[in-house]
Design a protein that fits this description.
482 residues, alpha/beta, seven-stranded mixed sheet, 10 helices
């Protein structure tokens, strides 16, 4: 006899776990929830001992036809929460309204105001560190105080008080009951001191709830539908295909595997798997005269919003600027100066630009092995590239306060965020899921996460992924919050 559950959830990372958090808060004691996780439960001790976030190799699950493009995917309990850097920025109001404000791209079917309440809840759960001031409207303060800025960031904040801010991050600025303080080494992927929020150190208790059954090493193959209703989920475990039934099916994998599962299940909307995208990222290394770097209290402690919102978005992409505090982050080979006494007079900047997706960038089922998702990414849009062409002008602006001696390097970098492959919208003809992440035709199927993103914001995607899951769960539970 086929097992039956009230809810079947695929995945254990941010999207799935924040949905589960909200659902369990209001579900009856009799509720039955099954969670299927493709990987294993690799403990923190295992990760540190093995210098790896996962015992499962990425090549076991996906392939890419562009060797220059890196995608960040971590398997196992907690998913990408184990490897993320901890950036917990909100999107700006204009990110949701590109078309109506600036005449480019498309609008999201929700607004900043729709998510503002949920943003605040996620920040409390993650114990986000952040400043008392903010570039976007806020109704609640950050739960933890901000990180200490580095010397160049102090100069930037003084010169541009409304354009430079201490970073909102889930890397703890002070010790708390769950986590220690960020060590600022830049080894954030493993986070040796366990200072950043992860599902393992922050929401693992959800999976110990008696209403929840967690099955590891369970690779979801497909969703079975009948008469427009999602009925069953097939998954592979220990070499055997198993089937479970559910009243509500929730895909919370990621932007690669949500569309992969839908395609293998026979869903045929032309946009499933299309518009794969992310921010465009450019790294710039500067030598400064007499200003010491790498002395902030976290790997990244400040963000620049000088070039973000504004009428320039009609012509080219918005930009958020990162200032890095660790010469060890991402292991570049040009982070230290060789002159005596000047080793840390070098500033690492990241310029993140929003992007307008292309139908040519896709996730499909591999023709070589249907168990693999195939990633195809050619390039970013001309809109994003025009934004990157503004970097010399941006550096001129920063040189009003920073004593820049020379630009050492400038190079394109992969932000590695997977977005936009099961796009959300109000019109079923131009979107796969609605504004509450419910499939337009299959109304008991939710597709969570950044796969729903219509466009790429310069902001890091994780806080919005988590807030969207709360938003979707509230709607399913009949608790819509204005």
């Amino acid at each position: 006899m086929t097992e039956h559950y009230d809810v079947v959830i695929v995945g254990t990372s941010f999207a799935a776990s924040f949905f589960l958090l909200r659902y369990l808060e209001h579900a009856p004691s009799s509720a039955r929830v099954l969670v299927l996780e493709r990987g294993n439960n690799d403990t923190k001790a295992w990760q540190l001992a093995n210098r790896s976030n996962s015992s499962m190799e990425s090549t076991e699950a996906f392939e890419s036809d562009n060797p220059r493009k890196f995608w960040r995917i971590t398997f196992g309990f907690g998913g990408n929460s184990k490897c993320w850097m901890g950036g917990a920025t909100r999107m700006m109001p204009g990110d949701f309204e590109l078309k109506s404000r600036y005449g480019v791209g498309t609008d999201w079917p929700i607004s900043y105001d729709d998510l503002e309440h949920h943003y605040g809840i996620v920040e409390q759960v993650m114990l986000v560190s952040g400043p008392p001031d903010s570039p976007m409207p806020r109704s609640t303060p950050f739960p933890l105080p901000p990180h200490r800025l580095s010397d160049p960031e102090v100069l930037l904040k003084k010169r541009f008080p409304d354009g430079w801010y201490q970073m909102a991050t889930a890397r703890a600025s002070v010790p708390n009951s769950r986590r220690g303080t960020c060590c600022s080494t830049g080894l954030c992927g493993l986070c040796p001191v366990d200072a950043k929020f992860t599902i393992q150190n922050g929401l693992a208790y959800l999976y110990e709830d008696p209403r929840v059954v967690l099955r590891l090493a369970a690779e979801v193959q497909s969703i079975g539908t009948f008469a427009g209703v999602a009925r069953t989920v097939d998954y592979l475990q220990a070499g055997e295909v198993k089937t479970v039934a559910g009243d509500l099916i929730v895909l919370g994998a990621n932007g690669a595997f949500n569309p992969h599962i839908l395609l293998r299940s026979g869903f045929d909307h032309p946009l499933i798997g299309r518009r794969l995208h992310e921010q465009m990222s450019v790294s710039v290394t500067l030598d400064l005269r007499g200003v010491k770097c790498y002395n902030g209290s976290s790997a990244l402690s400040g963000l620049g919003y000088l070039f973000y919102e504004g009428e320039h978005r009609r012509d080219h992409a918005a930009c958020m600027v990162e200032t890095w505090n660790s010469p060890f982050a991402n292991h570049p080979d040009d982070t230290l100066r060789l002159e005596p006494g000047r080793w840390n007079e070098r500033l690492l900047l990241g310029f993140l630009f929003d992007d307008i997706p292309s139908d040519e960038n896709t996730v499909t089922v591999s023709p070589n092995n249907p168990r693999l998702a195939r990633m195809h990414f050619t390039e970013h849009s001309d809109y994003a590239k025009r934004g990157a062409q503004q970097i010399p002008r941006m550096l001129d602006k920063l040189s009003e306060v920073l004593p820049i001696e020379r630009v050492v390097t400038s190079s394109w970098a992969s932000a590695a965020h997977i977005q936009g492959t099961v796009v959300m919208g109000n019109d079923p003809a131009t979107s796969v899921v609605d504004r509450h992440l419910i499939h337009h035709q299959c109304r008991n199927l939710l597709v969570l996460g950044s796969s729903a993103y219509p466009t790429a914001s310069p902001a890091y995607p994780t806080l919005t992924i988590s807030a969207l899951s709360l938003w979707a769960a509230d709607h399913v539970l009949g608790r819509d919050v204005a």
